[in-house]
Design a protein that fits this description.
Number of strands of chain A: 9
CATH architecture of the largest domain in chain A: Sandwich
Strand content of chain A: 25-35%
CATH class of chain B: Alpha Beta
Oligomer: heterodimer
Number of helices of chain A: 7
Distance between the termini of chain B: 38 Å
Order of helices and strands of chain B: HHEHHEEHHHEEEEHHHHHH
CATH architecture of chain B: 3-Layer(aba) Sandwich
CATH class of the largest domain in chain A: Mainly Beta
Structural class of chain B: alpha+beta
Shape of chain A: flat
Number of domains of chain A: 2
InterPro entries (chain B): TPGS2
Strand order of the largest sheet of chain A: 2-3-8-5-6
Radius of gyration of chain B: 22 Å
Structural class of chain A: alpha+beta
Region (Disordered) (chain B): 285-315
Largest sheet of chain A: 5 strands, antiparallel
Largest interface: A-B, 46 and 44 residues
Protein name (chain B): Tubulin polyglutamylase complex subunit 2
Largest sheet of chain B: 4 strands, antiparallel
Number of helices of chain B: 13
Helix content of chain B: 25-40%
Biased composition (Basic and acidic residues) (chain B): 293-315
CATH topology of the largest domain in chain A: Jelly Rolls
Chain lengths: 242, 315
């Protein structure tokens, strides 16, 4: 559901950026690297790839966005600066790529047990054999993660596609933001998993506008702080349908 | 000359026993044509070119060497299969609208190709993690690992109820079928702290996630026969869904397979109703294999035992 909302959001991105520009986090990206299981033989086809994001210094990450290209599910593995490495005060991630940082950092990178699973397997394409949601704009926030995205020095995005139908799959336009999105939750027509769009898509634009205006007038002042929960203007939906 | 014929006949009998008569059924359906169709499934009438490849069995010592190399004990039934035939391949084509399409495929790798999936080691390259590296993060071993302390334990709770799937860092998985490139069938052995049945059969899909197919060799073999070796039958059984291409051919050839898994019979009932393959009959055949003169009797015993087997379930 998030997926569809954000794909709508993308259409109004320029406006959105003017309203509130968000701080992005810089990183180096490597991969996608295929993950194989039969190393002795010829490299066979695999439906598992890993993209590694390397952050130049320990950082906080609030959200990652990307565009899907036929990926069925994404897992997020996180490498965090441990107390020892962060106290050594290093450019930890740079230690991996640049090679000038100390042995501690490199050691953490090489220790498979140091990686933690934040998001195990987020399905972003509900039916792997068919096209639905294959090109969506996807957001993964730190709220979905089982561990905090603090002091992050590396992230692995584990892409999976079990269906043999798609020859290639990947994600692109990966962006990391330091903070969570501060958008009011909006109610765009949501396509449920069985492909039926929800009821409110049938409502005409005028009706929707009238309804939203009425709701917006009713917001008590104190609720503005926590976000325009149920009464906000449905910016995205208007944009989408006009 | 008579020996040749007898040998051929015995091989045929062996195949018939091994496939519970499926080969004969498929062939008969085809050769009978439309006039006298023996229906095992609606519309199998286009099946042709049923071909079975079975090789000589491997020596017991070879199996033992394999077991020692990998430090596992092969399931008894699978060992019997290898000592009777080193791998197995059954294919058939489907003829429709003037085209012949290779459709059916049942395969068990020769023992020499039964390799372990994943080395159980890390890659050592942080930018190119191996499947073991990923597995270590996803399912940290129960011991040590201070990281696992921070993690809430929904996984460990669920592990108590259903058998957890094999993992690439602790379990040993050996590929016995590459599923024509859309996945793998492995026979898996649990490592420390894992609770799935030893020697159970799993379908590892392209994205390298294992799904249970069968708890033992008998069940796996029967599943393979029951699905006629249709394309992607493993994915169907594992609940992964068929590609549109494969689904179309199920609709044409064996639509009843799409109706979903039939509930397995309770064990006590299965004792009475299910005829089971008695793999032990192949052992006797193999024991006498070296002395060529005794082959006739051993083959006959195979046939007899198998015939007996259909009537009276063993093991």
């Amino acid at each position: 559901m998030w997926t569809f909302q954000l794909s709508t959001l993308r259409r109004i991105r320029p406006v959105y950026c003017l309203i509130m520009s968000r701080e992005t986090v810089t990183f180096a990206q490597s991969g996608p690297t295929p993950v194989c299981v039969d190393e002795g033989t010829l490299p066979s086809r695999t439906g598992c790839y890993v993209i590694t994001l390397t952050f130049p210094q320990p950082t906080q990450v609030g959200e990652i966005t990307f565009r899907n290209h036929y990926t069925w599910a994404v897992g997020v593995h996180v490498l965090r600066a441990t107390s020892s490495t962060s106290s050594s005060g290093g450019v930890v991630g740079a230690g991996l790529l640049g090679g000038e940082a100390g042995g501690d950092a490199a050691w953490v990178w090489k220790d498979p047990a140091a990686w933690q699973v934040g998001v195990r397997n987020k399905v972003i394409m509900p039916h792997p054999h068919t096209e639905t949601a294959s090109h969506d704009f996807v957001s993964i926030t730190c709220l979905e993660s089982r561990i905090d995205w603090q002091d992050v020095i590396g992230m692995r995005l584990v892409l999976r596609q079990p269906s043999p139908v798609w020859r290639t799959f990947f994600i692109e336009e990966i962006t990391a933001y330091r903070e969570l999105p501060r958008l009011p939750p909006f109610s765009v027509p949501i396509i449920t998993q069985d492909g039926q769009s929800s009821r409110n898509q049938q409502v005409s634009i005028m009706e929707r506008l009238a309804q939203q205006t009425k709701c917006a007038m009713l917001i008590p002042d104190d609720s503005l702080e926590g976000g325009l929960s149920n009464g906000g203007y449905d910016i995205a939906a208007l944009q989408y349908t006009s | 000359m008579g020996g040749m014929d007898g040998r051929k006949e015995r091989d045929t009998n062996f195949i018939t026993d091994l496939t519970l008569g499926l080969v004969e059924t498929l062939r008969r359906v085809w050769s009978a044509g439309t006039a006298r169709v023996v229906v095992i499934a609606e519309g199998v009438a286009g099946v042709q070119d049923v071909s079975v490849t079975s090789r000589g069995g491997v020596e017991r010592a070879v199996v033992l060497a394999w077991e020692q190399r990998h430090n596992v004990v092969m399931p008894g039934a699978l060992r019997s299969l290898y000592m009777a035939t080193d791998g197995f391949k059954l294919t058939w084509n489907y003829s429709t609208a003037g085209k012949v399409l290779p459709l059916g495929n049942m395969e068990v790798h020769p023992l020499g190709r039964v390799n372990r999936l994943g080395t159980g080691r890390g890659s050592g390259d942080p930018l190119a993690p191996s499947i073991t590296d990923l597995a270590l993060a996803e399912d940290p071993p129960l011991s040590i690992s201070p990281n696992s302390m921070q993690r809430p334990g929904p996984k460990s709770l669920s592990a108590c109820s259903a058998p957890s799937p094999p993992t690439f860092h602790t379990s040993k998985m050996f590929e016995i079928d590459s599923c024509q490139g859309f996945g793998r069938v492995v026979v898996a052995f649990p490592g420390r702290g894992e609770n799935f049945p030893e020697g159970s059969y799993w379908f590892v899909d392209l994205s390298l996630r294992p799904h249970l197919l069968a708890a033992d060799t008998h069940t796996y073999w029967r599943l393979m026969l029951a699905h006629l070796g249709m394309p992607q039958w493993q994915a169907l059984v594992a609940g992964q869904g068929l590609t549109p291409w494969a689904r179309q051919w199920y609709e044409v050839v064996a639509g009843y397979l799409l109706e979903g898994a039939r509930p397995p019979r309770p064990a006590h009932q299965a004792q009475d109703h299910v005829n089971r393959l008695d793999w032990s009959v192949f052992k006797t055949k193999k024991t006498h294999h070296k002395t060529k003169s005794s082959k006739d009797t051993s083959k006959d015993s195979t046939k007899d035992a198998a015939a007996k087997d259909t009537g009276k379930p063993k093991e």
